[in-house]
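Thread amino acids onto this structure.
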């Protein structure tokens, strides 16, 4: 997963439509097959919703992973504004056009996910000094893990991720941030070993004080 600062750095290295694409993916958790299968008629700008009506994999258009996965996805006003601006500048803005249409096919097909990932996004990650291996699932994983780290209700996360069960949400997709895990662990340690921790702190202060006294003596 990516940290928020890493997402910001990555976005700063991307131009349209790729910045719009990554921002949409990391703030909605859309699957790769859903992201590239979007058409403009699927985005309800009035109600800030995305209708997941199809998926595309290896150029084959399908109905989607499951009935649960085809539930509508809420869209942030900020992200919707970026989508609208892209729609106005895109060469393929009609309702039946692909949101991320391929210029090579004159809009008849969407862009190829693997090509976008290897030629655009991963190169942008290098420029942003992000050393992590990035795949399309990275953005969905970042979305779910950040929701959990923010303390969102598991049921809410489940519905946003469009999973059949909250157990699947927790077991498969959710990875607590390293800092959050460390803080949680430290709280346990503080409860179990409060006196030992205090003694350790006193010992460290004593060592530093002795070191300071020795330096002062040598200076004289």
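Threaded sequence (220 positions):
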């Amino acid at each position: 997963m990516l940290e928020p600062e890493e997402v910001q750095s990555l976005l700063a290295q991307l131009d349209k439509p790729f910045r719009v694409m990554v921002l949409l993916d990391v703030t909605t958790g859309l699957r790769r097959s859903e992201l590239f299968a979007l058409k403009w008629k699927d985005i309800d700008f009035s109600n800030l919703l995305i209708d997941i009506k199809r998926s595309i994999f290896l150029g084959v258009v399908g109905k989607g992973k499951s009935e649960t996965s085809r539930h509508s996805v809420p869209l942030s006003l900020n992200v919707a504004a970026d989508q609208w601006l892209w729609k106005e500048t895109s060469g393929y803005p009609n309702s039946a056009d692909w949101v991320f249409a391929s210029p090579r096919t004159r809009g008849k097909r969407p862009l190829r996910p693997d090509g976008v990932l290897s030629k655009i996004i991963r190169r942008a990650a290098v420029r942003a000094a992000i050393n992590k291996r990035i795949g399309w699932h990275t953005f969905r994983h970042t979305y779910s893990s950040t929701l959990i780290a923010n303390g969102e209700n598991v049921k809410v996360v489940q519905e946003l991720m469009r999973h059949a069960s909250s157990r699947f949400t927790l077991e498969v997709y959710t990875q607590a941030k390293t800092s959050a895990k460390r803080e949680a662990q430290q709280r346990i340690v503080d409860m179990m070993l409060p006196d030992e921790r205090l003694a350790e702190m006193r010992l460290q202060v004593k060592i530093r004080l002795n070191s300071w006294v020795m330096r002062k003596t040598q200076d004289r």
